[in-house]
Amino acid sequence: MLAAIALIRSLQVKAFASIQLARPWLPLPPAAAASSTSCTPGRDSRPPATHLPPLRLAITWPHQQAILQQLDLRRLTGAGRAVIVLRARIGDTLQDGAVVAGLHGGDASDAAVLAALVTGPERPFGQDPLFAFRLLADIGLRALSPAVNDPATAMQVLDTIESLLAPLASRDLDVADIADGTGAVKVVLALPSWDDYLRIALEDLIEAGTRSPLVLLRARARLAGLADAAPPQRRSPVIWRLHRAEELAAGNFPLIWRHATGGDPG
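The structure corresponding to this sequence follows.
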């Protein structure tokens, strides 16, 4: 009987541990911070866009469906004389026959370009800064689901997302041009924009928070802080998401909204 009780207790502990959200969450903030270190401090004046020679050839993916996990940049820059413009982004699902890159100008080996695309069955953290934000948002969505109903975890997710987005707000995200030793641009990467980060990290969470005034108010506070941290050219996409959170809070919880804003009708 004692052995049976101990076994039942062990199963209960494992079952409760399996539904805890903190365990898969812990490695995500360091992973997101590490994967965004390639972004350099923002510049006030941006360089002119790379002038590309005419498109000569489109390279298609010749294999079964796979996820683009990382790029071998050394192999790409040495693939030939052409400028390689990648159409696929790290984390994208490559479909058989889909265009993954364009060759502009000179010649380059198709096989060398395709060999530089490292693929696998799932997304890793290494070169994929959006992946951690996607997982954080998914944890927040799971916490807000009717089956779990854990707004406190969703609020913690929002806090963590803001702590990761705030440093990115002042960073130069346009680091797509990769040059060789002579300074000539050889590869143009497909990289996420500032709006991509905001969309992946926040939009689903804001809409899912319609049932929780605490989550909407926390989203409003975090977006207000992010708007203060962002340079002027990056505030607009933050502001309209801030207004969306305010609209949902004022419409769904008018009494709580008036109390939180000191009677401001929104």
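Residues 37-49 have pLDDT under 50 and may be disordered.
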